[in-house]
Amino acid sequence: MANPLSADAFLSALRAEGVTVVEVGNWRTHNRHGHGPWGPVHGVMIHHTVTKGTASTVALCRDGHAALPGPLCHGVIAKDGTVHLVGYGRANHAGLGDDDVLRAVIAEKRLPPDNEANTDGNRHFYGFECENLGDGEDPWPAAQLEAVERVSAAICRAHGWSSGSVLGHLEWQPGKVDPRGFTMDAMRERVRDRLK
């Protein structure tokens, strides 16, 4: 069981891993704490946004929309690899997912197929949204993939986790396809190599 990092420790961990960070407004206190607990935390979840354009993507992820209030993640990973911090604490990113997957993440074991949506993921995962159309054709620039690797490794390093604590939204919640355009197995391998 891990308590969430403080906002300062989170920011320091990202910078120590070489992440280029932009702090957006009151990100340290922008959260959904009144709508459920934040923690214990067990992993890092990666998403794609189905959007185009960094400024509008960051605004959407910070503010959310009528059906889903923001923040929609902790950080937005832009095409150029810059990470825009938009919230900290409980965020509307993971939704309900599979308790078997959560147990596997905690144990840092191979993830089982996600076939249930019975567990609050917003409580347990750091979330990063990646600017991408999610159509399987929109490119993933090398700088963006490296930033996904670095943010994942930074949080794993800070908590003493292995790459087994990194997962995609598609591995958590039935019906989700994100991130689309690279495999989470390949990303976990990159994170594992970075943590050596």
Automatic annotation (TrEMBL):
Domain of life: Bacteria
Residues forming coiled coils: none
Cross-referenced Pfam families: Amidase_2
Entry-linked InterPro entries: Amidase/PGRP_sf (IPR036505), Amidase_domain (IPR002502)
Every N-acetylmuramoyl-L-alanine amidase domain range: 27-180
GO molecular function per UniProt: N-acetylmuramoyl-L-alanine amidase activity
Signal sequence segment: none
GO biological process: peptidoglycan catabolic process
Name listed for the protein in its UniProt record: Peptidoglycan-binding protein
Source organism of the structure: Streptomyces finlayi
